[in-house]
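User: Please work through this fold.
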Amino acid sequence: MVSVHVIDNAEDFLHACAVIASGSGPIAIDAERASGFTYSQRAYLIQVHRREAGTFLFDPPAIGDMSQLFTQNEDEEWVLHAASQDLACLREVGIAPKRIFDTELSARLLGMERVGLGPVVESLLGIHLAKEHSAADWSTRPLPEPWLTYAALDVELLVDVRDEIEKLLIESNKLAWAHEEFQATLDKPEKVLSAEPWRKISGLHTLRTPRQLAVARSLWFARDDIAQRRDVSPGRLIPDSAIVAASRTQLANKAELIQLKEFNGRASKSLLDTWWNAVVAGLQDEQLPVMRVPSDTLPPPRAWADRKPEALERLQTAREALTSKAEELSMPVENLLTPSILRELAWAPPSPITVVSITAALKKQGARVWQISETCALISNAFVEADQKLAEEVAEDS
């Protein structure tokens, strides 16, 4: 059983950094956030394990800057499970790995049926890893001891998992592919913040007028401001469905607002004045939002049949080829090639369609070298086949 002592001060943190630096081999690291409970996506607990050093639990909010942990070990390999989920919150406290080994991503490349940490540990090490606290509110203080034990075990076995997975990657000739994927994960740019984040309100599409949208926008910003100040998940104040209901209904006063059945949530009554003021502001807003914002994103494939049937034919033909290839390589087709890349190419393929032009297009879209090598000829042939099929159908009809 590992110690579940949480390090929450600078002196103990610096001592732990020195001990970790004296260890050997890769460094396993994991972070626990409080998604669904807090506004921020910060780490509320960071767990680290290294052979010959031990397991350490850190309290990031109490420690603050944790860059010393990285700078003393910056050239080492850091082992994470689903690195894309944790890198942002680790970087936020100064931990910015240069080399990683992602056990979850590796499990996908190997075609493992279940890629969560628990199933992977059980499959490779024969150890059952309970995951009952994975959705806990990690901003809780003090953290219960069972949670800490659970969190420590997440990293204590991770280096052993890494070693077993590496053997399998070597046996299947996928280790080089995995390293390309790891680097792509590190290099992936941060998401660009939306200019109008309120448009992501679930159910917003049911509103029919710009005035209704203005009310929804006003309520969203009121909720977001409170949530940010209190560091609480916005949906824990009032859900999106409450915003939509209040925006869709013609309300004369706040009494009607609170009587609205769909206007619920933990803070629907306690912050009633705030919500009503937001409704009034939306009703009086002279800068009405447009109903639809122009977008350069592709329409969903289900709409392609009417808008661009030749693109749909290319997409479907190429999908079949890539699905067969993915089965041959024992991996999910989405890991063989990101679906959005194939959609982009099918919608607007290079001209002429050749292996060379498809290769260049794949590279431009961010496909990895190994993905391009495995898919470029398949996509090129599929696109040519699809276009020929359509041309023959047109010739027959004329």
Summary: Residues 238 and 268 are 6 Å apart (CA to CA).
